[in-house]
Each structure stands twice: as structure tokens, then as C-alpha cells.
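Thought: the user wants the 3D structure for the chain below. I'll pass the sequence to the structure tool as-is, report back what it returns, then summarize two notable features.
Action: structure_tool
Action Input:
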Amino acid sequence: MIAGCGGHTPARDPDPAGPVRVAALVVNPGRPAVAPGERLRLMAVTRGTDGSVTDVTARGRWRVTGDAVRLTGPGRLVAGAPGTAEVEVRAAGRRAAARVTVDRRASGALTFTASRPFPQDPLGRGMVLAGSHTWPDLIDSGTEDPPPAFDNERYLDTLQSHGQNLTRLWTWEQARWTAETTGDYRFSPTVFVRTGPGTGADGGLRFDLTRVNPEYLARVRERVRAARERGVWTVVMLFDGWSVAPKVSADMNPWRGHPMNAENNANGIDGDVDGDGDGEDTQTLANPAVTAVQERYVRAVVTELAGEPNVLYEISNESDGGSVAWQEHMVGVIRDAERDGPLRHPVGMTRPYPGGDDDVLRTGPADWVSPGGDPDDPAPAGERPVIMDTDHLCGVCGDASFPWRAFTRGNNPLFMDLYDDTATGLGALDGDGADPEWERMRRALGIVREVSEGVDLTRMRPDGAFATSGYAITTGGARPQAVVLATGGDRVTLDLREATGRFAARWVHPRSGAVLARTVVEGGGQVPLDPPVDADAVLILTPA
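Observation:
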């Protein structure tokens, strides 16, 4: 889908009116696992009655119970010997705590299994990936030369304060110009070193395609490690279909500033095999010289990140439909490069655009996929685990029910976020990062993650027949656990005919996590339940 499309439907449940009060104090992340010697940054956040979040880390009184970690500052920890510790904070008249596990296994990577919709963390715990991303979060971009530096610290504060645990690091292959703007636009650092001889079309020295830029590699490693300290997993994008072709209009062609353009490199490589004025051929296997350069680059990134646990690879963002064989080849390159390394990172493929076919993703070699679809009616996860990214559904879009609709269909929700509007030259030109619906979306993503940690995701599967709303994940069996989305305040009936015994049913607000009501139900039949609010609500069912 066009990364720059915007718009959304009205919120189904506006945040409550009236004075905002502190409803809860939470610690993000809530159940982190780190290896001995690692550093971890916890954040204390007050959550208002309207779902709003306020960072109170510096104002809190922090205390550790246990020897596994030690405090070095407010919320800042260093892991010691293996074990567990409770890290408590008191602020705003409330108390909250995180349980930190120190375990050598925590230096491992995520594991995706084709038969399971949700990944397992290095300790074997099921987890949902729920987060957001924005265009300049890896490579600085803008109309200035050099472009302004992205404030990564502030961005990670935003992710962590909202309780999110996933982001996506965007690469841009070109040095100048975009597929969405007619004016000037620049990117730094570049993937390859600029040495000349000669000057490229963008006015800079020509690229040496034999040398991956050390500054670029260091930037990737730094961003990954900074996210790791916050408990955030990172999708590292390797290529970008929006860097090689004019997907919107012929006069917006990023290929002019691409290193594989014959005008821009000193190695005599021409990535435009068919001479049609774009670089889509570079994302095929048409030119062995181009493929060789790309393989060296991929191996350089893999080497740089070999020991980083919180990495997932994405071959390319929205390369066109002719790129599939090339993407599958690059999956093989990564796996070969990691053959003798310490970790095997999950590798993903995202929906080709244009000419995309989600079926080729589900039957291909990737560990996870990111298909297209409808944010208001997401497809249940199927043959491959899914990171459901609004970028490939409709861009900056949907509403705050999307994370729950995706999650209760067995998907890991990810939001293409305008964030602070500084990168609108890369997408959503008509968007507004201050739109309150996007803030509601960010909150919902964090509550999805929070709720997921209270159920056994390793055994959960989507089951539209379990609840009449059609949005449910459940373990099934005689003593099921389940998470159900009841939409619009409508009654939802649970199919507990195969269940036995009593079950605790807890209703929570989808954006604040506040408990709205509790009840106990009996198995053995169809059980109707009415949400306690005339709006979306989330039901958590566990054996009593």
C-alpha cells in the first residue's frame, strides 16, 4: 500500500470527559528479561482516567528486592548474577513494580513457529509484538543539507511510556529525492561510502559500492542497542521499494539519487537493466553484479548485529510484485551469513507493492510476514506468524480499535506513526501527528502488550467461533483462557460448551487498561455477557 496515505474512521469510543485523575502507576516494561551484565532502563508512568500517560521516572522512589540487579539511577539497572528481582517504584501516591529476570538465555533471539501466531521470547514465554514506527527513525532525512538529526532518545521515551515493545527501523537506499515529494529531500548516513572519483547526480561524490558505510552500520547497531535497553524489539529493514521507483508519479523518482544508478557510483554498475529509468531491476536477480553488491551489504549488517538479541530482519519494504524471488534469495543470504554465528534472527517479508500477492508470503521461506488487509476487519493469522502493520494495510490509518482487532485475530499489531510530523516528506503529506486518534492508538498498543502478559500466548490461537463478536484468541480445551474484543458495547456470547468449571471474567478498558468490571461464569454452555460500557471493551477469561 502507498506508505503516504492517511485518514481514519472516527473513534468508536472517545476518551472519557471530565477532570483527568491518576488511575494507575505502571512500570514499563513489566516483565523484562536480561542477561548478566546488561543494562536496563525502566520507566514509571502514571496513567490517567482518560488513558493519558505521564513519565514520572525521575520523581519516583525506586527500590530493588533481590540481588539479581542493582540500581544506578531512577529506573536504571545493571544485571548481576542469574536470578529474579522485584523493582518497585512509588510515585503520585501509588506503588508499582516490575519483575526482572536475569538469565543467560535472555541473550537469545525471538523464535517464530509456523504453527503459532505469537513468537516466544528467549525464555520460552509467549509474547505479542505491539508497537509503532516512523520514517526517519534510523536515517536522518529532510530538506536541509545535511538533514536534521532525529531525536532517538525522545522517540524511545514515547514508545516506552506507552508500553510498546516493537519498532521498525527504516532504511532509505537513495541519498536524495523521494517517491512522494516533488521538492528536494536528503538522507544521511548513506548505506555506501562516497569516495569518488567523480560527482553523482545529487551533487555528492560517487559511491564506492565495495564499501558499506561504517557510519551507517554503527547507526544501526546504536539504535538496536538503545531499544534493547528499553525492552523494545527492532525490525531492521534492509531494502526499500520506495527507494528505487516512482510509485506515485513519474516526476517523483528516487532512482535519481540511488547508489546503483550508473550516474552515482564509481564501480561501473548500472542497476537499470531494462533502461526504463527506474531501479526496480535492482530488486530482482537480473544483474549478478548488483546482487553481489547487495549480498555484501546484507552480510555486513548481519555481522554488525550478530550478537544483538532484539533484532528481526525485514528484507524490503513494499518492493513490487516482481521482487519475490529476489527477496527469497536474500532470506537465504541472511541464513547463510548466520550459520556460524551466535544467533539466528527471525527474517520477515512484507507485502509486495504494487502487484502484491499475500499468498506468496504465506508459502515462502520467511519466519514471519506482513501482508495487506483491512484494519477494520483483519484476517486471522494463518500459515505464518503475522506482524500486521498499518503501513501495508492503508498507511497512517485505522483507529484505536485496530490493535485489539488485530491481536484478537492472532496478529502482532504495528502502527505507521506520523509521530512529530517532521518526516511528512516521506509519507502522509496530509496527515496530522497531533490527531488525538493516533494518541489513542499508541495507548491501545501498550495495553495489548500489558494484557497479553497475563495469559498463556504459547497456546492461544484465533477462534472466531468462540465469541459472537468474531474477535477472540483462546487456548481452547476444558479450562480455556481467552481474550475477547466486544465491539461497540454489544453483547458477546462465549462458546463454553466444551469448558468445565468456573471462570473469572474481567472487563478492561482497551486504552487505559482500567478494570471496568469482574464476574464469574460457569462452563458447559453458551454464556452471554454484556460489556459494562457502551463502547469497545476487552474481556479476559481465565480459569477461576
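Final Answer: Structure generated. The helical segments are 152-161, 214-229, 288-304, 324-337, 358-362, 390-393, 402-407, 436-452. The chain has two domains: 131-452, 463-543.
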